[in-house]
Design brief:
- The chain contains 25 helices and no strands.
- The protein is an all-alpha fold.
- Helix 15 crosses helix 25, helix 20 crosses helix 21 and helix 21 runs antiparallel to helix 22.
Length: about 550
């Protein structure tokens, strides 16, 4: 229950926030559509564009297949070997790539798989003539697997750990071997997750920018988003950039529609509430097989992280930390990150409150119901129009007004806000819904509203999810290179752009040092958000 004046204010605030998001994205798309449509349509069907489209879909398909194909055995092994040494830390390690800036992970991969990396050193020691090249399709696949395999493992492991204890007891009583256990218990638990996880990974790979920019290896290994960036930044070919942007919007729209058609996961079966105890995987061959699988996954994910830390610590950190260029980039990054995270919180809270106000009304017509549905899909609009496409539209829109770099901080902050919006909504909406269900009637009966409600009722309960969402939104903005790539210049340098420019100038030691510093900052922010949520959960338990 929400008081009528609060209800009206919430609905109006949500409408204004959603209109601002829609206006920002709509102006960018309109700028793309209105710029020399004839030349853009010609570029839309040329062989270069079609070749880029084919490569984008190819690398995304292969990355998804490899990530799922390798992630499933790792999840099965971790689920079976619950007493594996350091298991909890291995599972936590699987979360690190998801909070790590992409450019930092890419540097770690180059240190392992690059021409002077550990892998090529081992090949040369074994007598190989041709070193392995990380640039091109092979490098893109390795990088995507590095970031997406942990994601698949965590999804599949969560599904396996939800299998009721009774299933394992029945399997043991029937004498199930490894094949029967997988066929009748494990596979049904993960099969319903595979389409959604594969669709998510495919979407991430299709819209990948930084990894392909760093590891693509030329025109033969370029995705649509990188081609958009190259068309504007280097060739200044707006018709081609527009054609590629529209192609990207159409492709992501089709993918989102297909993902929406995927069936939702079934409800968890009822159990007798016992703790889960598995009876399989105790034989020596099973333990050896699972141990090898877990160790290989640990090496695949852990070695690049170790390489980043080793290269960063071997750099001249005191000199880098006292350099004026670092503090200028750090100040710019923090300014953009705080602004984008604050905007993401404001927009998310406004949308969530508006949806709650509509749901709390006793009588709602089709118009309010449609309004609530549209608000709920607002956070997913950035998936339809990726950051590079948004940046391209605003680049063309603002170019007649002078130097686009003048508008860069505000544009990057707003684009990063849109990138963080789906995550912030996912964190805040369940917390707000639970809080409203528990306190809504009491608040209405006491007549508390406005600032008094925020100070006395909402903030003491909601500060943990709010700070968690804010921390992760800041970390996402600090580590982003995609939005900065179009607008980066001598007068607008962020930490990722500083790392990228040092790589381009072959100052690899400085790039490694700055990447290490950036990675530590982002991981501290991400870990801080999680720890605050855990502390509050324990306090309220």
């Amino acid at each position: 229950m929400i008081q009528s004046r609060d209800s009206r204010r919430f609905i109006y605030s949500g409408a204004v926030a959603f209109a601002a998001v829609l206006l920002f994205m709509g102006l960018a798309v309109a700028a793309l559509l209105s710029f020399d449509a004839g030349a853009s349509s010609a570029a839309f069907f040329d062989p270069y564009t079609l070749r880029i489209l084919r490569f984008t879909l190819l690398q995304a398909s292969l990355s998804t297949l490899i990530s799922i194909g390798l992630g499933l055995p790792v999840a099965l092994a971790l689920a079976r070997q619950r007493d594996f040494p350091g298991r909890i830390w291995i599972i936590r390690l699987m979360a690190v790539p998801m909070g790590l800036p992409v450019i930092v992970g890419a540097l770690g991969l180059i240190a392992i798989w690059g021409r002077q990396g550990v892998f090529n050193a081992a090949l040369l020691a074994l007598g190989a003539d041709q070193p392995f090249s990380i640039y091109g399709l092979s490098g893109i696949l390795i990088a995507h697997v590095f970031f997406n395999l942990p994601l698949a493992v965590r999804f599949f492991l969560a599904g396996l750990e939800r299998v009721p204890d009774e299933y394992w007891r029945v399997g043991a009583s029937l004498g199930f071997g490894p094949v029967s256990t997988f066929r009748f218990i494990e596979w049904p638990a993960v099969a319903k997750l595979v389409p959604g996880v594969a669709g998510l990974i495919f979407m991430l790979c299709v819209t990948s920018f930084t990894l392909v920019l760093l590891l693509g290896g030329g025109p033969s290994a370029t995705t649509i988003e990188v081609a958009i960036y190259q068309a504007l930044r280097f060739d200044f070919d707006p018709p081609r950039a527009i054609a590629l942007s529209l192609l990207q919007i159409g492709m992501t729209g089709i993918l989102l529609a297909l993902l929406a058609l995927l069936p939702s996961t079934d409800a968890e079966p009822s159990t007798q509430g016992r703790g889960v105890r598995r009876f399989d995987g105790s034989s020596i061959p099973s333990r050896l097989w699972d141990g090898v699988i877990i160790c290989l996954a640990l090496l695949l994910v852990g070695l690049p992280l170790v390489a980043v830390a080793s290269s960063g610590l071997s750099a001249d950190l005191p000199r880098l930390l006292t350099a004026g260029s670092f503090w200028r980039a750090f100040g710019t990054s923090m300014m953009v990150a705080v602004l984008s995270a604050s905007l993401a919180l404001v927009v998310s809270v406004a949308i969530i409150r508006a949806r709650q106000a509509v749901a709390a009304r006793r009588y709602t017509g089709w118009l309010l119901n449609a309004f609530s549905t549209v608000l709920g899909s607002g956070s997913s609009l950035v998936l339809l129009v990726p950051p590079v496409v948004l940046g391209s539209g605003w680049f063309l829109l603002l170019r007649p007004f002078g130097d686009v770099a003048v508008f860069a901080p505000a544009l990057v902050a707003f684009i990063n806000m849109l990138m963080a919006l789906p995550f912030v909504m996912r964190v805040l909406e369940p917390a707000f819904s639970t809080h409203q269900a528990r306190t809504g009637r009491l608040i209405a009966s006491l007549g508390i509203s406005g600032f008094s409600r925020l100070r006395l009722i909402d903030w003491p309960v909601l500060w943990a999810p709010i700070t968690m969402a804010f921390s992760f939104a800041m970390a996402l903005s600090l580590g982003d290179l995609g939005a900065v790539a179009l607008f980066g210049s001598e007068n607008f340098v962020t930490l990722p752009w500083l790392v990228y420019s040092n790589m381009g100038s072959y100052r690899t030691n400085d790039a490694a040092g700055y990447a290490f510093i950036l990675g530590v900052i982002c991981l501290v922010l991400a870990a801080g958000g999680v720890s605050r949520q855990a502390i509050t959960a324990k306090a309220t338990a």
